[in-house]
Amino acid sequence: MKIKKKKVLIVLGGISGEREVSLETGRACFKALKKKGYKVVKFDPKKQSYNIITRYKSFTIFNALHGRHGEDGVAQSFFEYLGVPYTHSGVISSFNAMNKVISKKIYKKNKILSPNYFVFEKETFSKDELQKIIRKKKIQFPIVAKPVNEGSSIGVKICSNINELFISGKQLFKKYEELVFEPFIGGQEIQVAVINGFPIGAIELKPKRKFYDYKAKYSKAAKTEHIMPAKLNKSDYNKVLKIAKKAHKCLDCKGVTRSDFKFYKKKFYLLETNTQPGMTSLSLVPEIASYKGISFENLVEKILLNASINR
Description:
The protein is of the alpha+beta class. The protein has 10 helices and 12 strands. The chain is globular, with a radius of gyration of 19 Å.
């Protein structure tokens, strides 16, 4: 898409648990586009109503939101309704990718390996039912419990026995209506960036913490080791790029995505595809792009130039 007037509205912040990360992403993208000569304005939906976006009709929206109401199709539905071009994925693809159950069904339909799972709603959750379904599904501990529609590992609990799992479930159900449970997959943590349908590289992460949680992602103090490119043989490296490209396509994503994998016993397990990956100093997509010779400013502009409505 050609942006004639070079006016950009950076939508950042919002009301999710990832607000602080979104503000950081938004600020970084704001600086990058300013450097590129765009007229850039910030818009925070926590402080302003989406309806006033109509004042910015000649602008293109750069969606820098993370988490619920930002990457689950809610914000996107406002952008579509208001008829303002925006970046990243559209309403349905954002909703499907954010929902861990729907995305797993789409992966399975497209023959993409993802961990086995089961779902509980708050009303039906009990220790007896939990034990029954674990036996039926033949899932071994440790088991991961997590919200169906959160990002950045918010609410993720790794449990080593039934008591721990039940207590974690009860705690999570105080905040969430639905949870997904799956076996914890060991092995290498591999993440792949896809831009405008093309996979650009895979990075490996070695967290010092129990797993690649919120602190491991966003705190320098967590000292997560980043290995670029990921330590895989050529065949496996190319294979994970292809799977990420396939996930991007089958979810009907646009712009940039980051798919998160575990490589265990010679198999890639796709955990999720993130349609609004972070663009902070510790973020993975900019690091992968930099390795491929794409500067941060060029990466942000590349995402912007893909903006449209009817995404």
